[in-house]
Amino acid sequence: MNRMSAVSAWVIVGLAVVAPALGDWDDGVAAFQAKNFEAAARSFERLVEQNPDGWRGHYMLGLSLIRLQRKDEALHHLRKAYDLNPNDLSVKLELGRAYSLARRYSDCAKMLGAIDLNPLPERARRNGTQVRAVCRDKSGDTHGAYEDYSLVAAMDPDDVRVQYRAGVLAAGQGDTSTARRYLEQADRIVHDDPDLKIEVKKALARVLRRIHLKKVREKSRPNHHSIYQKD
After folding, report:
1. What is the band of 169 on the pLDDT scale with cuts at 50, 70, 90?
2. Residue 229: which pLDDT band, with cuts at 50, 70 and 90?
3. Is residue 142 part of a domain?
C-alpha cells in the first residue's frame, strides 16, 4: 500500500455521502475502488467539465491521476480542490502527497506541517507522518524530520528504513543514546538489502565511537571537588 492510500480509502466513503448524485461520480468511484484508474479518471474528467467549481470532482480526479503517474495533472486538480475547499483535511493530505511526488518538498512540508494528524485512523496517521518526515528531511528541516521519524519509528518498529533514518537524524541532533537505540534496532531487522545493511552498520559504528569518546573525555576531566578536598 502506498504511503497515503490509507488516507484515500478513509475519505472516499465520506465523500460519497455528500457528493452530488451524478452518474459520472458513481461510475468514477466504482472504477476507482476497482483500481481501474483510467476509467475513473475519464469519469471524473467529465464531472469536472460539467461542474468545474465542485471540489470533490477535482479531488477524485487528482487521486486517479496520481495512480496513473500523471503527477503534474494530479497536482493541478488537487490544488484546485484545495482552492475550492481549503479547510478539508483529506484535500490537504493528498495535496501534500502530490507535492511530495512532484519533489516540491518545501511545499509538502508546509502543507502537512499545518495539519493535526491525530484525528486520523492509525494507518493513515502513520503514513501521513512519514510523508511529512520525508518532506521535512529533504527540505532541510532536520529537527522537524527527526520529530516525525521518531513518531513513525514508535508506530512501526519493524520498518528498517524508518529506524535507520531516525537514528541518523538523532545523531545529527546530538542525541547519541537515542540514535544508538534506533540504529541497533535497524541492525537487528535489516536482512534483504545488503547495501542498506552496510550503511546501518557504518552509522551505528560512528555513533558508538562518539559515545566512547564522550566517556573517555568525561573520565579525563579533573575532579575539582576531589582536588579541593585534598587541599
Report:
1. very high
2. low
3. no
Same domain, 45 and 108: yes
Select from 73, 99, 132 the last residue of a domain: 132
Q: Are residues 117 and 162 in the same domain?
A: no
pLDDT at res. 112: 97
Assess contact for 31 and 37: CB atoms under 8 A.
yes
3-state secondary structure 143-205: HHHHHHHHHHHHHCCCCHHHHHHHHHHHHHCCCHHHHHHHHHHHHHHCCCCHHHHHHHHHHHH
Question: Quick one: pLDDT at residue 46?
Answer: 94
The answer to whether residue 147 sits within a structural domain is no
Give CA–CA dist 142/123, Å, rounded: 24
Domain residues for 178?
157-220
CATH code at position 32: 1.25.40.10
pTM of the predicted protein model = 0.82
